[in-house]
Amino acid sequence: MSIPTLPEGEPAPTLADPHELLEGYLDYYRSTLLRKAAALPEEELRATRLPSGWTPLELIRHLQYVEQRWLNWGFAAEQVPDPWGDSSTEDAADRWQVPANMTTRQVLDAYVAQCDRSRRVTSAAKLDQRALTGGRFPAGEETPTLAWILFHLLQEYARHVGQLDVVVELAGGGTGE
Q: From what superkingdom does this record's organism come (predicted)?
């Protein structure tokens, strides 16, 4: 099975625009996630090698929903039918899940489609713009800036891509970038 691809590589070291830098690093981590997933055969994508029990496909689906929760439902205040669809409850400690009838291709395509939706939300917005209310954030509540949300997403990706690197190594694949 071929894994979809996204633009590869870190942003140029000469890049100084903070908005472009944040979006460039998000794309870098998105691409790295897919590249690491491509190093695993189908059975490893659906298997766990860690005591916590998550699988690489569950991790990918989780990051799809993380982006949706923070950018579509959160920043843009879009109505999202099931913002916690990556787990069985709203409890962050609950295990991620992929429905049994969902194929690997469907998980990957949904992830890539969400990355595209996320880029559309962030590309025209300013970093100091605050998230709208009515989606994730109730009216009257102080909402985070786009800059804060993008930094939050970067730390999520950095942590989870590092975890996936360990899983790939345990499965007999390479390490590093």
A: Bacteria
